[in-house]
Amino acid sequence: MATRKKSKGKGKAKAASRKVVKLKSKSAAAKKRGGNGKSTSLPKPSTKQYGQDGKALSGVRILDFTHVQSGPTCTQLLAWLGADVIKVERPGVGDITRGQLVDVKGADSLYFTMLNHNKRSITIDSKHPQGKRVLDELIKACDVLVENFAPGALDRMGLTWEHIHKLNPRMIVASVKGFGPGPYEDCKVYENVAQCAGGSASTTGFREGPPLVTGAQIGDSGTGLHLALGIVSALYQRYRTGRGQRVLAAMQDGVLNLCRVKLRDQQRLKAGPLTEYSQYGQNIPFGESVPRAGNDSGGGQPGWILKCKGWEIDPDAYIYFITQAPVWQEICDLIGEPSWKTDPEYATPRARLPKLKAIFERIEQWTMTKTKFEVMEICNKVDIPVGPILSMKEIAEEPSLRKTGTVVEVDHPIRGKYLSVGNPIKLSDSISEVTRSPLLGEHTDEILKDVLKFSSKDISEIKNSGALSAPKKEEKAA
Ligand code: COA
Prior knowledge:
478 residues; 6-stranded parallel sheet; 3-stranded antiparallel sheet
């Protein structure tokens, strides 16, 4: 039998939830009295230096059942924000990405390491009776279970909402799935499937070409971000209600949320052609659906990608140039067309709309005489919004990104030093440090002992059962 100490956290959390309810009524009473709702029961502002008083999610423990990209993106963010993330992996194999796109023989791939920083790893066969025993204890000891298995997989492990909620009514169960309830709810989904089903692919690319997927992982990482917000919100609500809830982020929904401007344009079609799309200026009729807009700007200010000096040999010698109306005069001066400032054929945004292609060609004659960084410098001095097309090489070497911790160098015991993207969300009182991803099962013993408080006898029993280790080769063959 397990000799686990009763979690002290539970009692404390209950008290915290009672306290919040009390504070709420106090604040309502204060408002009634015309006060500002300030309560003396609220903690006094910390006197510690900013960044020295714990992390935003200190004390939150996550049972991380995620794999591949969408779920791990979410739990990595929560780990950076201070949560203790315990990643459960299948013995012997682990997250499948450990062995995908391998660049250093014998080391976890960058695919895995770059999505699993700041986590601990425990290996458990979730279908083994002793594995289930460990999982049940983890459910009791954690605040949030995050998973992105294929639909139904968690239930098939016996981890139904009812089972989890009975063991720990405070637990939040958060899932990424490909689709929400409906005709496709049982489908397995990867990044590009979501980009297609969420409306991104049909609106990306050039009008005359096929639909395109984007390099930004809006289906996987984008949905992971949505899920993280859902989890933090559920934790906040739990302070008031004292109970957990289910959180679902469907990849189709996440992509569509990021494509909402295109659903906006779909409805605007009823009112006539979309004048900011360059096909309008080229007299090409619109159909029933939002067309692909190439590099047209998504907002009301026309923009396009233009060649810069060196474009013949450098595939990234380009700049995004926006002909924002308030700086039209400055643009005309820069490109050597001062008469366009007053010429009625060019002076107003409306007059320019049908001529945008020719206007951008003229601007490009100028940008081709400068490097993208020169264009950036010259234009920004006069507030013309432009964006150099940065290659991944340039981003990796950019000193300002290193300085802010957005690009970090991480050391790994097997692969050595590698670059990663750090936490893009900067909190002034919860500073993220990026620590390396765990080796497979690196923290199994530590978690059984320190988190779950199993006795040495219990640990031996569980280990000898084979629930935490890969089947031996001979056994496999037999
Ligand atoms: N112990 C024992 N079994 C385990 C285990 C463990 N620790 N961890 C996972 N498994 C099992 C699962 O229970 C499942 O078994 P079952 O099918 O018999 O129930 C099996 O491993 C495979 O899980 P599954 O999620 O189906 O993996 P997959 O590789 O076949 O599919 C995805 C991968 C990503 C397509 C699928 O998980 C999915 O659609 N997820 C939701 C959407 C998503 O997140 N997609 C983006 C991924 S970046």
